[in-house]
Structures are given as C-alpha cells and as structure tokens.
Amino acid sequence: MRFLNRPWAWGIGAALSVWAGALSAATPDAAAGWPTYGGEPGGGHYSTADEITPGNVGRLEIAWTHNSGDIRERDREAGVFSQSSFQATPILVDETLYYCSPFNMVFALDARTGAERWRFDPKVDKNADALPNCRGVSSWRSGKAGFCEHRIIEGTLDGRLIALDGATGQPCPDFGTDGEVDASHGLSEHDPWEYSITSPPAILGDLAITGAMVLDNISLDVPSGVVRAYDVRTGALRWAWNPVPPGMASHDEDGSYRRGTANVWSVLSVDAQRNLVFAPTGNTSPDYFGGLRDGLDEYSSSVVALDASTGERLWHFQTVHHDIWDYDVPAQPTLVDLRLGERTVPAVAQVTKMGLTFVLNRETGEPVWPVEERPVPQQPVEGEYLSPTQPFPTHLPALIHTPITPEDAWGLTFWDRGVCKDRIAALRNEGIYTPPSLQGTLFYPSNAGGNNWGSPAIDPINQTMFVVTNRAPSVVRLTERDECRAGGAGGAQLGTPYCVRTRNLASPLGVPCTAPPWSTLDAIDLVAGKVLWSVPIGTTRHMAPFPFWWIKGVPSVGGPAVTASGLIFIGGAMEHAFRAFDAKTGAELWRHELPTAANATPMTYQLPDGQQFVVVAAGGHWAGLNPPGDHLVAFALPEG
Question: Which entry of 165, 271, 323, 326 is annotated as an active-site residue?
Fold first, then answer.
C-alpha cells in the first residue's frame, strides 16, 4: 500500500475552496481519474493526483509500454504522403485505460500493468492518403450492469461513429446498424477522406455530440461542418446544427447540409449543470480566400454555445472576423470558475493560434474583461474583402508580438542569416492579420500557432493557465488561377480565383528565419493577467546533425497536463523526449528519452492504493519531422 503525499504547501484556503465545490466545473473527481479527453468534460488537463511531486519526480521510470502495431510510413512512390500520427490521450474508467490508434483501432488496457484486455479494429483503409490520427475516445455509462451498459464511443477517419462494449470491445448491436452509424449521412458528395472524425465525441446525458475535420483548401464546395448529436443507445440523430447565419437555409437544393460551412474539428466541451455544449469552429472554406463565402462567416473561428437538448445556438463569440489566415479555433474551450475578488465567474477560456486568449462568461458569451476592436492591415487581393478591425483581449497578454523585421533575421551562420534577412524584406509584412498576397505574406503567427489543439492546461486552484506557444514564421502566397499547376494540390482552393501555397520561412540550412526559441511553455495568471514564466520546450537533439544539438525551443505539436502537486508533464517538442516542469517556477525537473516524438497530450491518474501513473503517446506527427511510432508509455515511481 502506498501513502499519499498531500500538497499542503499549496494552501489551506485552496483546499477549502475545493471542499466547498467552488470549482466544480473544472476540478476532477476525488479518485484522481481521467474520464474524458481533457480530464473533465470541460477540459483543463488537470489532475488531483499527487503521489508524484516536484521532490520525487526525478525518480520516475517506465512502468510499462503498449504497442498497437498501427504504424504507416510515408511512401511517396506509392502515393502515400502522410505517415501515421499518434496523437491520442487515453481515458481512464475504473481501472481500465481506453485509447485509439491512428487508424482507429481501439484498445482497453489494465491501468496498472498495461496488459491488453481487448482490441477492436474498425477496418479503416490504411492505404488511403488521409491524415491518420485519432485524438481519443469517449465513455458513457448507464449506471447499470450488463452488456453495453458501459459504452466506448469512437469517431473514425472514414466518418463513422462506433459504440463498443467497455468490458469486451464488442460492437453494441442496438447502436445504429451493428454498432455503428454513418456520420457522413446528409452531406453533399465528397471524396471519402475529405470528412473525418479525429476528435472524441462529447458526452452529455444520453447524447454523443460530434463535429468533424473537413480537409482544408480543397474547394468552395467542401462538405458541411454540421455538428450533430446522436442517441448514445440507439444511434438515432437527435439534433443537428449547421453553422449558417440567421435567415439562410441550412440545406442546399439537393437536400444536403449546406456546403462550405465552418467545421468543428477540435474538441467540444460540455457544461452539464447548464446543459451547454461549447463548439470551437474552424474558418469557412477555403482558408486563404474568402471573397466568395456568401455570408457564411457568421460563426467561423468562433466559440459557439449550443443548447444540449436542441442544438439551438444560444450565443457565440468570434475570435477572428472574416478569417482568411486559417486561424480557426484549434483548442478545446476550457471551463474554469474564476475567483475575481468577492465574486466567482463561470468562465470559458479560449486560446487561439494568434497567441491571444479570450475569456468569456459561459452563461452569456460576454467577455470577462474588455475586448478591443483594433484596426488591422487592409488592401487585399482583387475580389477579396477584409474586416477593418479585429478583436484583441486587453487583460491577458498576447503571447506573440509582431511584426518581424529584417533586422530580426536569424541563422546558423552569417550567410544564411543574410539570406533570411532578404527573404523577410521581400515579403508583405505589416504584422498580424496582414492579408495573403500575390507578393507573398509573412505569416506570423502561422497556422500552427501561437497556441494549438493540445493547450491549455489550467490549474483551477491557483487560477493558472499553461500553454504551448509556437513562434516559427511561415509564408503564404496566392497565385492567380491561370498560373496554378494543373491538377492543383493541397492548396487548390477550387472555385476561387487563386490557389495558395504555404511554407515555413526558413534559411537555406532549414532552420526558421527568426531566433529561437521556436516554441515555449508559458504560465499565465488568469486573474492578474500576466505571464508568470516562459521556458523553451525541447532541443534540436533529434532534428539536426551534431554539433547543432544546442538550440532550445523547437516547434511543438501537443500539449501539457498539470497536477495538484505542482507538476507539468509535456512531450510536444519534435525532440524524442518527455519532460516534467515545476508549475511554480518553470524549472525543468525531469526528462526521459522516448523512441520518437510525443506529439500528443499526456494524462495522469492515481489508483486506489495511491500509485500514480503518467501516460503519453509517442508516435511522431504526420508532417514527418520524426519517425512514426506506436508507443504508449506509462511512467511511475519505483516500488518502495
């Protein structure tokens, strides 16, 4: 039997707040589990687990590893341009872990040993040139005993919703047809891989609520971004919300959901107490030209609150007006009860690719602190229009500062720094929201962030938010249609006057044209509105040849988890490593090498005897900067 190490140093007042239930929206249950993707239905990536502390984290060792066998290498000759990307965060129900592999295989593991209890293969086509990833699965329990009274719900790359018995992994026959629903029903005609469910459905009551990822930049007529709720027992459609503005028909003349609407590819949040669903929307298609969107921008790049019973829109807040930068809302809207003086505000914190954080009252959608509309660059390409202003929060600091000037150019040598200086000078560059151009626009922050889908983690006791911030610039360049390559590419933007190309702004030696760090882990005091600390994540150890291993702060994909004992766990960086940081100071306390990069968000849990585990998926990213892998790795303190 292990003894629990209680973090008394964090304050009696904080403990009393938890006891009083003041933080019910964000604080996990007392069992220190991890029942949903974000730790709780409202996100936060926070755990009350406290056996592992800043004092003993240096003793962590691998407890077990599970390998799914689900790996795909990039093979350009065979027409496969995307390797597998293992981005899953497991969930814990009782003492079983559930997770999905890049091609949607589902696994149930013993939470203590990692022993496999069952697996389910939905037979997704592994040869299709999709972007293979699955961020997680969801759990629903009826409270009764019996077959399929506990269901694991998964969305698939080919647009299915599947319900499995939690104990056996067998499909639940009363859900849809033989345990699955075709979640692409009602959509316009499209290629099979244009519409994929890559994030776990939200569960509220007896509903499974899901959006989907719709491939970027293909054309004006991509499938609808409709959000739908299904009965978790029968698979019947209960409601649908298509992001069309008031007064516009939600269906096209052929009866399909209106094409081209903003999709919800990231993670939904729910507030059971208020019966609310929070949807983070993408930008209306295509990404970099909006002159033909026909009014469909109303709910793009927004946080949208829906009535969970009907799907009715209750309020929305737009983070970018007429988004033509692919600044879609990438991260789960995160619920937190903010203690502001004598009052507590039920809030939703939304991080963005711009490095701006909007904090809204989740009952009304009104900003908790003022948001200013500020003038932004104008003069777009012919046929485009722009919003004259964009919203900027005033309380929480911006994590990205622009513009970058030629004098900010950086390189490994004097020569490549000079090339970068010339490249920056040749681009249109007026700071954030400079519109895409034929000349080429310096794209900073890029569509990778700022902050992206793995953030944020929020400590509700100390009211502190932790985010990964990417700081590497890109270039976006439009090309007139008659000069586009025959057959198009990922940036074809068919139906518009322009195709598009985006690329990293890098030196001839392949490093970003701006000084490192290119990503940081940042701690923000949500009440005081200030950055507490900022530290680089990762090194170039696995990205560059010797002797160029010394650069700190490499591009990152993934996010952090935070514990009540004051630790932050994170992989994220393209380095093959997993780390723990001190939540108070940002000091790196522990590092463990992995077989490949951990481009996922970790989770942690504590079993009834007090033993705590930290689990992370190490499988690289589909962009191919690291080799693909299938390693789900669990760490724990050594016995005794």
Answer: 326
